[in-house]
Amino acid sequence: MNTDEMFKQLEPPPGGAERFARRLDEIAAERPSPRARVLAIAAAVAGVAVVTAVLLLRHPGDAPPVTIANERPAVDVYNAPELDRLLGRPSQPAELMVMVNMETASVTPIQTSNEKVRIYQIN
Amino acid sequence: MTSVDKAQWIDVYRRLEKPLYNVVYRVIWDSAESQDVVQETFLRCWRRKDDIRADGFKALLFRTALNLASNRRRRARLWRVVGVEVLDEVADESVSAHGFSKPMRDALDGLPTTWRDVLLLTELAGMTYPEIAAALGIAEGTVGSRRTRALALLRERLDVQGVIA
User: Fold this and answer.
1) Which residues of B touch A4 (CB under 8 A)?
2) pTM over 0.90, yes/no
3) Fewer Cβ atoms within 10 A, N terminus or C terminus of chain B?
4) 8 Å CB contact of B18 and A19
5) Mind telling me how many Å the CA of A15 is from chain B's nearest CA?
6) ipTM score of complex
7) DSSP track, B4-50
8) Interface list for chain A against chain B, based on CB atoms closer than 8 Å
9) ∠B101-B145-B113 over CA atoms, to 5°?
10) How many whole angstroms separate alpha carbon B156 and alpha carbon B162?
């Protein structure tokens, strides 16, 4: 009684190495696959659709009045400019921190003619 | 393996395609899919070739192939549950492309996965016990004990199904 038949050596379909060489050439270019591109586009469209739906379905009159805490929040996200805009309060100046090779780098502001544009030089 | 070029990689593929194919085929029972899994295994390792140690290369190849084969088989079953066929109908055919009857395939499929993987590598991959232990992340002694138990259970099931007389 044996299991030789179960473990007999099988021959793979012919032309495997040639097909593999072609696939190797294809990935050498390392471009995103069509499937990945479709998924990325679908994800982006879905994201835009969700944001649009939320904005369209919002009724400002139904929303409870927004109360702004007087105390300084402990979480950094409360200082985010996006939240300031949502709450209708003036943006708080935030400290700029730049990391270069996992180390904090100092920056020097550079004058600009447009007050909405800030340019910094990394020292 | 920093200096491996494409020609060398294809040469390695030629040498190891057959044992890898034999192992993968016993997991998904589909000829074209098995070859595709073998190629995908090599392509994945090619992308990481600069990080692979030469002494662990074979173990990595077979472990990757087994993982990919198991994933593909699981995905095929899932699609079958929801009514979409992604693999050939081979799993439901009485005899596969290489002549394995359904009772034979069921007997191997019915083994615990950890036992089956050991059995496939010992019987088909031409690997030593230390290589298999490294590939599966188990002790060398465990390779031998799992192989013994897997073979016994396989024979028992084949006997029950009347496949081996």
Assistant:
1) none
2) no
3) C
4) no
5) 10
6) 0.78
7) --HHHHHHHHHHHHHHHHHHHHHHH--HHHHHHHHHHHHHHHHHTGG
8) 1-3, 5-7, 9-13, 16-17, 19-21, 23-24, 27-28
9) 45
10) 10
